[in-house]
Queue: 3 jobs
Job 1
Amino acid sequence: MSVSKTSITEKTSARSVLTTKNIAKIAILGAIATILMLFEFPLPFAPSFYKFDFSEIAVLLGAFAMGPMAGVLIEALKIVLNLLFNGTITMGVGELANFLIGVSLCVPAAIIYKRHKTKKTAIIGMIVGTVCMAIAGAVLNYLVLIPAYVTLANFPLDAILQMGAAVNPAINSLGTLIIFSVVPFNLLKGAVISVITGVLYKHVSPLLHR
């Protein structure tokens, strides 16, 4: 029986991430991300249920230092810890959204940076990650997340749209909610997270690689 090179590479990559030291770093960064997630606030152009937080900074730092798989694990740990300590008021939909959209920022950025670790590729990676985050946020909210919340929470779509119209009268449909709130929200969040991560990484990198 032959084993594909891709399978061997994936197993080797998993082993290289899941060392004792990296597991400890992932746990610490996951805890930091959970704490950062507590300090959330709405933005003036989006309905109040879209909350901005800085937890992706810890995730992106870990992804840059240990690779994209570590970023996914930190993101997942953050969500699990948040559910354990704070529960959910969105039937799990908000937490799923946070995980998927966070991963869509950190994984592309880390993949690009991993190939050639320079300041230039880090910037390119974060720009690409921010664009991916905006696209993923738009598609997932339109096709999956908002419809799932409407169904699971029995919360009328019209009520969600009214919340959007309260901050922007141009919002009168799910499509306009995505265009005027979700896309700018994720573009802004990705840009802010990227800038802060870019400033911090040089200073914390020695600790993360120790």
Job 2
Amino acid sequence: MPPRRRPTPRPARNEAAQLADQLQQAGYTKRDIARIIDRDPSLVSQFYTRNKGAAFVPALREVLAAVQTGGITDLPELAAVAARHTHRRTTASGARARVRGKAVLITPTGSGTGRVGAQAIASGSARLRPLIAEAARRSLRLAFTVRLAKTGYLHPSGSRTDSPGIRRDVIQRADHTEERSYGSAQTGGFDAADFARRVNAAGGDVTAAVHQWLVETGRIHPDAHILHLEIRTWRPR
């Protein structure tokens, strides 16, 4: 009888991954953590797969303390906490490294994503306008996710009167806000060209165009404020 193979022990997670685990236990997703430290979500995944994240440990510690002790739950506030403890890497000469800004990218298959937080939303989410314009030029479909206070919605989560209809398209947060998604590849989404016309009619203000659509279609109160906004595109089959 051949000897049994002993299972290979799983390597211990680094501190960045451990802190990310604790934040997820507190109700935050990897995407939320990425927003808090102002990095791409793929970096948070690399805390687990490539042992990265050491540079963000001080920031993550302070964020976790703010959640557990300070009772802070709002992403922009947590991002402000993290920013005080996140330092840009330096070059060999000691100068601050230059970081390329994120370009609007739509793949050849039509897949593209753009998201903005409270600060960008306050200025009209201008970064999302080129994404929508390019999607319109390519005759793509479009969907979006909004986050606002639960009291801002007219219908309860999961209501079939609202476009999600099922709870998996609704994310409830500990800070009494809620994310809801409108449009998908399964439902056909929205015509990007029509949405681009709405944005143009709003003077280029993407936030206002989304808000107006939500009010017109009876989904939110007119005085509700969008806190986070994400746009997704794809090519129709």
Job 3
Amino acid sequence: MQSMNSEYLQPVKGNTSGQMWAIAKNFFRMLKATKAFLTLLIDDSGNLGAVGKLSTGLVNTHAFHVAVEAMKVKPEVAEIIAERYMAPPHDLEALLQYPKDSLGYTYASSLKQSGFQTLAAEVEIDSDTSYVENRWQQTHDIWHIITGFDTSEIGEIGLQAFYLAQFQLPLASMLIANALISITLFQPEVLSPLLGAIAKGWQMGQTAKPLIAQKWEEAWEKPVAVWQLEMNVQPIS
């Protein structure tokens, strides 16, 4: 089996300083991601900073590249990746003016009520993987609305299973693994509902149309129920 760090240990053809610098950057990025993973394992305070560091550290990994190549088999996903479609920052106050059953209103009101801010990736869009990283973060809370998974720990992991079924997002599998280890060691009584959420998220993601391919922001007025029907998503009740 190829070791996880083998990509950093291969001889560099030509041994140019640029190639060496790229390898060094990727190596230290992976170290930061590993540190973030361990921080999440022992820190139960809901450390979103560690999640961000873990996610950023995975952008240029072989796993992410493989995931994106597999995603592009679906024409609609390949099209949006090639287009690099990104919507302007979501204006929550403007979205609250839409009808109450609309995606725009539901999304904005849920963020307002929870006190959450819209997500934004801290990486420049200069590749397919960096585009996907930015787009999934921009639309993460929309996926919560469409799937019905709440923002509790178990709800979040259920959504990560949905991600994993849809496009093998490396962060998703890492967060699921982290949750399984943490719950098994520190909250074993919660293991059964966690596994149920993972199973449900995986099943939903397998049958749903690719959510990453949607331009949600161009149809904020569309009712959530209509989006769910069109995406073939039976949301968590």
